[in-house]
Structure formats: C-alpha cells, structure tokens
Design a protein that fits this description.
single chain, 412 residues, alpha+beta, Cytochrome p450, three-stranded antiparallel sheet, 17 helices, 53% helix, 9% strand, binds protoporphyrin IX containing FE
C-alpha cells in the first residue's frame, strides 16, 4: 500500500475515533457528526450553548437563523480556504458550483441558470404527473405492500433530471448505479474504502458523460448538455467544467428530492389529521412541501469558511475558520418559528427556511424540487388515501442528508 494511502486511512480512523470520543464526552457537534437517527436534540444542545459555539473539533457551529442568514449573504465568507483546500467531510465536488467561490462560481452558476429556470421547469409538470401515475400503477399491480423509497421516491427525480440533463434512456441504469456509489460523498465523513469506491465511480461517470457529450454534439436535443456545448465550442466553458456539472446536477437533484418526498410522507402519516386535510384539499400539497422543508429538511447542514477575521455573535472567527451552518437547527429557531418542533402544514410564516440555503449558493434546483415533491404528494394521497406504515423505517446514517433508506408502506 502506498504510504500516502496509509496516511489517509490513518487520518480517517483518527477523525472517526475523535468524533466518537468527543460525542461521548458531550460535545453536541460531535454528536451531530455521529449521525444519530434523531439529531434534533443535539441541535437544541448547540442552541443552548449560545448563538455561536466552538466545538473541541475546532469548528464553529450555529443554529441561529438570523446569524446563519447573515453569514450566507456575507462576502467575507466562502466555501474554500485561502490555500484552496476544502473540508473533506462536507458535500463537495471539485469544480462543481457548490465547491467554488466567486468569480469562478458566478460564471458557472450563470451558465446553469437557464436549464433550471422556473418557467422551463414548470413545463415538466405534465411529465412528472405521468411518471407518478405510472409508478403507482406498477405498485398496485404488484400487491398491497411496497417500499416508498425504492418503488416510488427514487424514480421521479431520477427520470426528471435524466431528461433535463440529457442522459439517454439506455444509459440511465448505468448512471443510477454509478450515482449510488458516489452518494457517500454527499453523506459526509467517508471511510477509506468508501472514498476509493467513490473515486472509481467518478472515473466511470467521467467516461459515461464524455460519451454522452460526444453523442449530443452530433445529435443535439432539448437538454442541458446540448444547450451548453456551444459554450464549450466558443471557449467560454471548458470540458473540465462541463463534466463535473453533468455529474453534480443529477446527484444534487436526486438524493435531496427523494428525501423530501420520503420525509414529507412520513410526517403526514405521523399526523393523520393533516393527511386527511390534504386528502380533502389537494392544494395543501404545497404547504406540505414548505413545512417538510422547515421541519425535517433533506440537507441538514452546510458550511462556510471565513476569508478574513470576522466578528460574529460575540466571537472572532479567524481567517480560514470553519463555520457549520446547521440549517435544520435554524429552521427550528424559536425566535423565528413559534412552537418549532411541531409539524403543522397550516403554519403561516413570513420567514424563509434555510432548507435551500441563502445568498449566492441558494439552491438552483429549488423550484424543480418543490414541484416534484408537490406532484408526488398529490398523486400518492389521491390514489392511495388509505396509505399506512407497514413496518419500521430505516434511516440512511448521514449527518448531512436526512432521509430514509427503507420506508415500508401498505396501500390500504
Ligand atoms: C429538496 C431538494 C433539494 C434540497 C433540500 C437542496 C438543497 C440545497 C442546498 C442547501 C444547497 C446549498 C448548500 C450551500 O449553501 O452550501 C443547494 C445547492 C445547489 N443545489 Fe440543491 N437542493 C435540492 C434539490 C436540487 C435539485 C433538484 C437541483 C437540480 C436539478 C439542485 C441543484 C443545486 C445546485 C446546482 C446547487 C449549487 C448552487 C450554487 O452553488 O450556486 N438542488 N441545494
């Protein structure tokens, strides 16, 4: 084994052991990093330590809505350290928008915006409805019991994003397989073995998209790759930028939306009176989207790096200091959302949640994710009004992406 590999393996083991030890000693941020099934008590422990708290791991942490909002809009914060280094345990891709600061970020974001423009996205509604009905037909044809995640939730975002980006039907299964291998990257702290299989899957993705890009060059269609290829030809976008974008969008758009669908249905089934309200008035599906994004968001936390010393909430973050913004905690800030732990689709709030972040990295796929989840809730509730849980759920064990791995249901 190469000595650098041995070193990396040892570093990862050291980090895991440290997190376990500090969690046992009561550090709430270490508890969060251990990805408990229910992280919300740890978020409240962080809140109890003040607007901003420094974990013995060295990271500053906040669950304060106002402070988080302020940081996300403050140009003195970015996502990279001065030497370009990024923090490995966070959702990150080299050259993807999420891992870049301006001006590079601004350019890539601008080029991607037309693909995810809300008006273009709205055109997919009919297709999304058809997909949902077809999935439910398939489920019903097979019997009463099914797993929401594998039989339903995964398929909608995968199909929509596949069309949007331009992944040919015949490559979708291969793409899906490679995506599953890359997912640990979104799931936070990875083991050495996982890091290696992620590398192999990224190489596989690069090969796949290189081929698709060549196909689209010969035969352009109505998709993102075809729309971006002229930018490559005129020299304003490089292939080294286009390929990570092709890989990142489907991943960012699938693993998150899948869990918005799952988390919302779980919350509704745990609150049958609210399920009935939506069954009687399907227009409330939009409120289910909003309240799920607040109460149990698929992306729980992200981070920023101070580019210079910044005074914040009574402490000074040094240059390169790292701040974890616990969006799921900020979404339950009692200063902003009264009775925050209660799931309530009738909640009226003037404040935005941080489920899609804020400022320059605000999620570009937010309109798409919202309408996909809305269509999914509407269709499920109207076609299966008697839906109920048919066994224990299994969570996916990540401190970043919150969602279910297994969600057994019975249609009647
Ligand atoms: C419920 C579903 C989704 C959630 C909760 C979500 C959440 C987020 C969050 C929190 C960020 C910003 C992280 C940060 O500030 O560091 C983000 C960025 C991003 N998301 Fe989403 N997302 C979702 C769906 C989607 C979809 C469907 C797409 C695309 C098809 C997408 C594309 C992106 C992109 C491109 C960025 C990077 C924006 C930038 O860096 O400027 N997301 N998302």
């Amino acid at each position: 084994m190469e000595s650098s590999e041995r070193q990396l393996r040892a570093q990862m083991r050291f980090f895991h052991d440290l997190v376990r030890k500090l969690a046992a000693q009561g550090d709430p941020y270490a508890k969060v990093l251990s990805a408990p099934d229910n992280p919300y008590p740890a978020y409240e422990e962080i809140r109890a330590r003040g607007r901003i708290y420094r974990s013995p791991l060295g990271t500053w942490v906040t669950t304060d809505h106002e402070l988080a909002n302020q940081v996300l809009r403050d140009r003195r914060f970015g996502v990279r350290k001065a030497d370009g280094e990024k923090v490995p345990e966070f959702m990150n891709f080299d050259n993807s928008m999420l891992g870049l600061d301006p001006p590079h970020h601004t350019r890539l974001r601008r080029m991607t915006m037309p693909t995810l423009n809300p008006r273009i996205v709205e055109r997919w509604r009919g297709r999304a409805e058809k997909i949902c009905h077809r999935l439910i037909d398939d489920i019903m044809a097979k019997g009463d019991r099914f797993d929401l995640m594998t039989a339903f939730a995964h398929h909608l975002p995968t199909a929509v994003i596949g069309d949007l980006v331009g992944i040919p039907e015949e490559d979708r299964e291969h793409f899906h397989h490679l995506s599953r291998e890359i997912v640990p990257l979104l799931d936070g702290v990875v083991t050495y073995e996982k890091a290696r299989s992620v590398d192999a899957a990224i190489a596989g993705m690069t090969e796949l998209f290189t081929r698709i890009v060549e196909q689209r060059r010969v035969e352009p269609r109505e998709d993102m790759i075809s729309r971006m290829l002229p930018l490559v030809d005129e020299g304003s976008l490089s292939m080294d930028e286009l390929l990570p974008l092709c890989m990142f969008l489907p991943l960012a758009g699938t693993e998150t939306t899948v869990n918005l669908i799952g988390n919302g249905i779980l919350a509704l089934l745990r609150h049958p009176e609210q399920w009935r309200m939506v069954a009687e008035n399907p227009d409330l599906a939009e409120s289910v989207v909003n309240e799920t994004l607040r109460h149990d968001p698929p992306v729980q936390t992200y981070r920023r790096i101070a580019h210079e010393p910044v005074e914040l909430g009574g402490v000074v973050l040094p240059a390169d200091g790292e701040l974890a913004i616990v969006a799921a905690g900020a979404n339950r800030d009692p200063q902003v959302f009264p009775d925050p732990a209660r799931f309530d689709i009738t909640r009226v709030s003037r404040n935005d949640t941080l489920a899609f972040s804020a400022g320059i990295h605000y999620c570009l796929g937010a309109p798409l994710a919202r309408f996909e989840a809305e269509v999914a809730y509407r269709t499920l509730i109207s076609r299966m009004p008697g839906l109920r849980q048919a066994g224990p759920v299994r969570r996916r064990g990540s401190f970043i992406i919150r969602g279910l791995r297994e969600f057994p249901l019975s249609a009647t």
